[in-house]
Amino acid sequence: MATRTDALTRREQILKEAARLFAERGFHGVGVDEIGAAVGISGPGLYRHFAGKDAMLAELLVGISGQLLTGGKRRAAEAAGNPEAVLDSLVEGHIDFALDDRPLITLHDRELDRLRDSDRKLVRQLQRQYVELWVEVVREVYPDLAEPAARAAVHAVFGLLNSTPHMGRPGSLPGRAGTAALLHRMARGAFEAAAVSASA
Amino acid sequence: MATRTDALTRREQILKEAARLFAERGFHGVGVDEIGAAVGISGPGLYRHFAGKDAMLAELLVGISGQLLTGGKRRAAEAAGNPEAVLDSLVEGHIDFALDDRPLITLHDRELDRLRDSDRKLVRQLQRQYVELWVEVVREVYPDLAEPAARAAVHAVFGLLNSTPHMGRPGSLPGRAGTAALLHRMARGAFEAAAVSASA
DNA sequence: TCATCTTGTTAATGAGCGTTAACGTCCTGC
DNA sequence: GCAGGACGTTAACGCTCATTAACAAGATGA
Fold first, then answer.
1. Phi, then psi, of B81 in degrees rounded to 5
2. How many Å apart are CA A176 and CA A169, to the nearest integer?
3. A152 and B111: CB-CB below 8 Å?
4. For a surface tag, which of A95, B58, B59, B153 has the fewest beta carbons within 10 Å of its beta carbon?
5. pLDDT tens digits for range B37-65
6. Alpha-carbon dihedral sign for residues A55, A24, A176, B155
7. Is the entire prediction scored with pTM above 0.85?
């Protein structure tokens, strides 16, 4: 039994490879044999670890949404009382996630509809809570922003931050730190610009 | 034979419904019978109009990329000599597209991998040209922005503008005009913020 | 030493689905 | 008025693919 120190458990290996493959070719586009092959076992051996292909996707998506929400809440609590700092921390956390787990980010808004009703509802609820967390903070930093506009702005900034999978992999970028800084500035600039509607 | 005035040709009906269904449930997630049913004919009747399911997706994606590029070139030519105006016009055109053809925007960066090699290459080439068009204009407006950063910024703004499908359909938005204006301000604000790296 | 759990394997099953065949019908133009 | 194309229909084929069955082999522990 693989412990904490030596790499990943078989289950975790499978989830990681499945995430990569799902992100590359879509849930329906990848077969169980391929997922098995990616971890060195073949085909139906996966069923010793998961109830089915659907269960892998469900666990991935619920995990993503949960991680985002949990991390967001933690950051909000850490910088509580300082909305500017909370917003910066949320942006930073989301960027880390987008840069470090590109396949998961891709899955996150691409394969949600393939889930069983109950799982989909759960994921949507987690996503909604995450959005609301952002909306609240954004409205504290920019009080002039009405709630519908704030919500739209938050979705737009998510789109901005989640664009990392579309950027060519290696050399065309300013490096990880530079990309993170660029995205951070752009996100804050986008919110700032969204809020100037108060003057009109 | 349906002419320009009365609604859509059968082919166009099919493409429209196929786009909607592909966007909702993914290319592999929707069957030809469903597409047929959506236009009132059933299943294999589609093969009188298209060589196959793949051909529908190919025509949709090539069409999208082509429209975006053509429109972008036209706008660049119309406002030539005034980079600020060109950039605003590009942003406006992209927003119109994102708001009026949400299903197509969704397909655009979701199902590209399901194409035959030749079609995929064509679409990628059109997309690349479109990106380059933006990058050139952005670098004229913000000369301090290095090319890799400009390219990353363009992708990020595409992500921002293409976020419309994630916003709840009707009442939660500030209305079409308001949403368009909001997205426009945010896009410009994001570029502006991207460019302030020169001061650091 | 022997039951048992874990973790695999390969072969079979069965459903879903894209595609083709074979066959009608209506409209059009000579 | 009738040949032929445009446009549909239903039935059948064949392939892919998730899932299950049946079976094996190494570790564990009484």
1. 95, -20
2. 11
3. no
4. B59
5. 999 999 999 999 999 999 999 999 999 99
6. negative
7. yes
DSSP code string of B126-173: HHHHHHHHHHHHHHHH-TTS-HHHHHHHHHHHHHHHTTGGGS-SSTTS
Query: Is the minimum distance from the CB of A36 to strand C below 7 Å?
Result: yes
Using CA atoms, how far residue A138 sits from A65, A146, B81, B179, in Å, is 20, 10, 38, 17
B42 touches strand C (CB under 7 A): no
Amino acid at B67: Q
Residue A145's closest chain B neighbor by CA?
A: B182
**CA quadruple A110, A177, B154, B200: dihedral, nearest 10:** 150
Query: pLDDT band for position A171 (50/70/90)?
Result: low
A151: pLDDT strictly greater than 90 = yes
Q: Output the pLDDT for position A170.
A: 62
As a residue count, chain A comes to: 200
Distance from CA of residue A136 to its chain's centroid? 19
